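Lab notebook, bench 4. Still working through the backlog of constructs that have no structural model yet. Next entry is a single chain of 237 residues. Request: give me the structure tokens for it.
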Amino acid sequence: MFKHSLVVLRVALCGALALSGLTAKAAGLTPLEQRWIAGMTPVLQHARTSGMPVDIVVQPQDAPDAAPLALGFKDGRCKFVLSLRGNPEGEATTQRLPAGLEDSALELMAAHELGHCRRYLEGAWFHLPAGFSATPVPEGLSPDLQRAYLSMKSVRREEGYGDLVALGWTAQRHPDQYAALHAWLMQERSRDLLPGSHHDTLTWIKLVRDPKALGSAPSMFDAALPVWQSGLNIDEE
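Model written out:
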């Protein structure tokens, strides 16, 4: 997610969903941006038809240190933020997409962000469910480090929920590809892993190695919730 003001190129969602018929030049987007938006289109279409307030925001300036895809929340709307220009990680992430499953992997990534969107819209961002309490802050930390620790734990929980929503989408929309995409996500989350850090979501991903663990709820958000809470029982011990 982003926390600062952005100079952006805003792409209307209706237009973004029709990008497959446009050239990158005509759309005002780079080929890489067009490729990512096209891959995410099924999730964006789902958000639109579900009435979720979602916009696409493309940063036109170089953003070498930004996440290639992130979610912001402003004025009650979720902002899918693409930061691919001048960003080596955007190209690297594209190269790491599983061969033959590139579109499905981009859908998974977009569904992860839609999980964040749902939490924002519910006013639940950074909040633990009823009956759960966070682990105490380690002793001996300065006030700044205490705040950083609590933020890291909160972000990690939200990332875990987002990954479960993403896998819930995959289980419902691409069940025959689930094993391969689950393995790819495990690999991505294991890259340069710092145990317990913001994107260490392996506690949750391991719980859904078998897609049956996500149950049969028609909503990917509802499917993710009980597994997320099970992971919280482990993670907050």
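Notes after review: Residues 1-9, 18-26 have pLDDT under 50 and may be disordered. The chain has two domains: 9-96, 102-235. Flag for follow-up if needed.
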